[in-house]
Amino acid sequence: MNKNLYALFESRFPADRSKLFLDCVDGPGFSYDDLDRETAKVAGLLRQLGIQAGDRVAVQVDKCADNVFLYLGCLRAGVVYLPLNTAYTSAEVEYFLKDAGPRMVVCRPEMLEAIRQVAIHAGVEHVLALDPEGNGSFQNARDLADPLQEIEPRQEGDLAGICYTSGTTGRSKGAMLSHGNLAANALTLHKIWGWQDGDVLLHALPIFHVHGLFIALHCALLNGSTVILMNKFDAYEVVRQLPRATVFMGVPTFYTRLLALGEFDKLACQNMRLFISGSAPLLEETFHRFQERTGHTILERYGMTEAGMITSNPYKEDRIAGTVGPALPDVEVRVTDEDGSVLPVGETGILEIRGPNVFQGYWQMPDKTAAEFRADGYFITGDMARLDEKGVVTIVGRAKDLVISGGYNVYPKEVELVLDEIPGIDESAVIGVPHPDFGEAVVAVVTRDASTGQPDEAAVVQAARTKLAGFKSPKEVFFVDSLPRNSMGKVQKNVLRDNYQDIFSVVG
């Protein structure tokens, strides 16, 4: 039996394939027949270019229907899809290209020349542009290719995608996700979230991210649903579209921005069945305000790049603010100390997980992969958590100092490496502090090198933005004489977080 994820989706297409699949807010609609035709054309182009099953294709393009078809066409052809955040600079993209060794990279038209230069250095054979208006070199080549009608045979362990997650050492790691990993997670979520005939997904998330690309789209495809596709989140547009939808998935920032609108109320949400939140912790205040304003209770869940979804609050039973629910039915979780010994119920420790959704390892990092798994197959998430007597998980912190800003992961070390290269900066420490809109904001605390120039805050931020995506760049920079350290000389980031935790209640 073909375990290709696309074959699973195709088996769930509606009987009437003229049904609308993508209802694009800023463009035409596409049926399930169109989906089949467009993905066959993508697969045909890949074969024409000599790209075979197991080869990689890197994609950094704006969200649009052709982006969705490119992803699904890669699945159909057995090609490994490598999504990249559109905020990444060409310097950041070069690392991914050198590391993953894709046969092709597809980018935005305005980035074509810059990406072509880094692609040459990385040894990438093909560079094409995808234009949301349909006029890019990728679309032109796709439309001239002979369609590939068959679905490439795949096994459960064959790779479907590589999603990069930042490393604490500054080097990003490519999480290898198989057709089996993604299928298992999607089937479980489709079931436990109660997907039903007539459900319509309002999709406002980016699709270079596990949340929007895998969780949201996969559930809709398994249900044969229509997807209202927004090219980006806009709170006013979400309110306009909600009456046509039944399911919405977002990061906490989406919900705080919706609550800021007076027209977001029970009437706007009267057709909705389910609101889901993830990618960052949802504040209990937001949970309760949303409940009072709309009459709906947000379903919060917990996941990560390496495993998709891991836990979820229940669909039918009570959802508890501040928790992320029990483990999914096919997932095992436990809380341990640093040595891997299981801790008693209620104690805080490191969350470890095991299940069919857990990734295949880090691309070309066998030692790192081995270090992140226990001998009995549990993956060490690095997140601090506790379990109650019913198995409900509460995430209480992050062992690796990860900052989640607007739903995007930022690892301080990556930012610090860039800041430390700025003339006049002696040393930097990057932390996340509470922010009313982003959940957390990236803040840099730095010391100056007295022997060189003295950069000001604007110069530091500007220098960071030339090498880092905007969401990674510091929102605020504070200059200090020295950084707090413990007896071992390690910077005490907990002290810095305490010192600066209230700045955005004043500044922002």
Provide a descriptive summary of the structure in words.
By secondary structure, the protein is of the alpha/beta class. Among the domains are: 32-153, Rossmann fold (3-Layer(aba) Sandwich); 403-506, 2-Layer Sandwich (GMP Synthetase, Chain A, domain 3). It contains 16 helices and 23 strands. The protein has helices at residues 5-11, 32-48, 65-77, 90-100, 112-122, 137-144, 179-192, 210-223, 235-241, 252-259, 284-294, 366-372, 412-419, 457-465, 493-500, 503-506; strands spanning 20-24, 29-31, 56-60, 80-83, 104-107, 126-129, 159-165, 173-178, 200-203, 226-229, 247-250, 274-277, 299-304, 308-312, 332-336, 349-354, 379-387, 393-398, 403-405, 408-410, 425-435, 439-448, 476-479. An 8-stranded mixed beta sheet has the order 2-1-10-9-11-12-13-14. Strand 13 (299-304) and strand 14 (308-312) form a beta hairpin. The longest helix has 17 residues, at 32-48. The radius of gyration is 23 Å and the shape is globular. The model has no long low-confidence stretch (mean pLDDT 93).
Overall residue-averaged pLDDT value: 93
Uncertain residue ranges: none
CATH topology of the domain at 32-153: Rossmann fold
- Summed up, the helix count is 16
- Total E-strand runs: 23
Q: In the CATH classification, which architecture of the domain at 32-153 applies? A: 3-Layer(aba) Sandwich
Task: Give a quick account of the main beta sheet: strands, pairing sense, barrel closure.
Answer: 8 strands, mixed
Distance between the termini: 55 Å
- Largest beta sheet: what is the strand line-up? 2-1-10-9-11-12-13-14
Query: Which value, in Å, is the CA radius of gyration?
Result: 23 Å
Helix/strand structural class = alpha/beta
Shape: globular
